[in-house]
Design a protein that fits this description.
Elements: E1 3-11, H1 16-32, E2 36-44, E3 56-57, H2 58-66, H3 70-87, E4 98-99, H4 103-116, H5 118-134, H6 142-151, H7 156-165, H8 169-181, E5 189-192, E6 196-199, H9 204-221
Parallel strand pairs: 1-2
Antiparallel strand pairs: 1-5, 3-4, 5-6
Helix pairs in contact: 1-3, 1-9, 4-5, 5-6
C-alpha cells in the first residue's frame, strides 16, 4: 500500500512565485506518484487584502512595495518569466498589467474543493494562475474568473451563484486567519503532513528530497 503525503499549499493567485513553486511541485509529484499518494490542498493567502476595486498598476505597486526602480521590477519580472516557463507556465510577455484583490478567487477555490474535490481544485488553481499571469486579464472582472471555472470543467452557473451570494466568505477568512496566526507571512508556504514547513518557490529536486525523507521516516517508524 502506497504512503500518503498531505500537502497544504498556502498561496495567492496574484503571486508569481506561487505559480513557479506549484509547477515545480507538480513535477516532483509526477516523479514519485508511483510510490506515494499525494493529497494537495490549496489554502488561501492574500498578498493585497486591502486592494480596492480596480486594482493598481503593477509596476507602480511593486516599486512602492519593495522600494525598487521600474527597471529593477522589469528585470525581476523577466527572471520570473523564465523560471515560470521552466515550471510549465508561459507568462504574458508584457507581464501582468495591474494588481488586484484576489478574495473571490480564493472563494472559488474553496468551493471547488468542497463541492468537486481536490483534483478539480488543483485544475482551477492552475487556471486562475493562467488567467492572471498568462492571459494577464482583469481579476476584478467576474467574467474572467468564470472563464477559468469553465476551462476547469466546473459548473459555471453554480460558481456565478456562489460569487453573487457571498458563499464561503466566512470559511476563507477563517482559513486565512489560521495560517497568519500560525506564522505564515510569505508565500508560497508548503506544509507537509501538518508538520513540516517548506517556503519559497523551491526547485523540484528540493521537493523530491523532502518527500523521500518523509517516505524513509515512515518506513523506519514501521520497523
Amino acid at each position: 500500500m502506497k504512503k500518503k503525503i498531505k500537502i497544504d499549499y498556502v498561496s495567492d493567485v496574484a503571486c508569481p512565485w506561487c505559480a513557479v513553486g506549484l509547477g515545480n511541485l507538480n513535477q516532483a509529484i509526477s516523479q514519485l506518484s508511483d510510490k506515494v499518494n499525494f493529497e494537495v490542498h490549496f489554502q488561501p493567502f492574500e498578498l493585497n487584502p486591502n486592494m480596492p476595486l480596480g486594482g493598481q498598476d503593477a509596476i507602480e505597486h511593486l516599486t512602492e512595495k519593495y522600494g525598487l526602480t521600474a527597471a529593477q521590477v522589469k528585470a525581476n519580472q523577466s527572471n520570473i518569466r523564465i523560471k515560470a516557463s521552466e515550471a510549465g507556465f508561459e507568462f504574458h510577455p508584457e507581464g501582468r498589467k495591474r494588481v488586484y484583490n484576489t478574495f473571490d478567487a480564493h472563494r472559488l477555490l474553496h468551493w471547488a474543493g468542497i463541492e468537486f474535490g481536490l483534483e478539480k481544485q488543483t485544475i482551477l488553481k492552475t487556471e486562475l494562475l493562467n488567467t492572471y499571469f498568462c492571459l494577464a486579464v482583469n481579476l476584478d472582472d467576474q467574467k474572467n474568473l468564470l472563464d477559468a471555472v469553465s476551462r476547469s470543467g466546473l459548473d459555471i452557473y453554480r460558481a456565478q451563484e456562489m460569487l453573487k451570494n457571498g458563499e464561503f466568505t466566512k470559511e476563507v477568512r477563517e482559513a486565512e486567519a489560521f495560517y497568519i496566526n500560525a506564522g505564515i507571512s510569505s508565500v508560497p508556504s508548503i506544509i507537509l503532513n501538518d508538520q513540516y514547513l517548506l517556503q519559497g518557490a523551491l526547485p523540484s529536486e528540493s521537493f523530491i528530497n523532502a518527500f523521500e525523507q518523509l517516505i524513509t521516516k515512515a518506513a523506519l517508524a514501521k520497523t
